[in-house]
Amino acid sequence: MARVTIIFALLLIGAGVATISAAEKKSPTALIPAFEGILLLGLGAAAAAKPGARKHIMHGAATVGLLGVILPLSRLPKAIFPAEGSEPKALVAASLAAMAALTAGFVVACVDSFIRARAEAKEAAGDAEPEAA
To answer: Which of 3, 37, 73, 127 is the most interior residue, by most CB within 10 Å?
Structure first.
């Protein structure tokens, strides 16, 4: 799962760089997906480097991913439907939607991995138990 985390991190970094490259006004907020990507990249690298702590690190990464879904989705309506007299911000909306979609995919991958790991652990524990006579 560490490798999957690193892949999603690189995609988020790419999304942030693409957003700031396409923006007319260069704002650091355009790099928010990249900042989350950098955080996930560090967590993915830590999970790969520390197999004993991988479970805890990946739960932290899943939490970061969940925040990466919730926060952009909370800002998306304001970008699409701004206050009266303002125009919708298509680039902001696209960036928020991309970040939410990428992190939602990451969270789904994390949950699937956690479920599979638990099933494998349960199966391994079941194989270790002595059979009843």
So the answer is: 37
Q: What is the Cα–Cα distance from 126 to 97, expressed in whole angstroms?
A: 43
At a CB cut-off of 8 Å and minimum separation 6, what does 98 contact? 15, 33
* 96-122 pLDDT, tens digit each: 999 999 999 999 999 999 999 999 988
Which ranges of the chain would DSSP assign to H, the alpha helix?
A: 2-22, 32-49, 54-80, 90-128
- Looking up tokens 């007319």 gives 24
Question: Rg of the Cα trace of the chain?
Answer: 19
Its pTM stands at: 0.86
Distance CA 95, CA 79 (A): 10
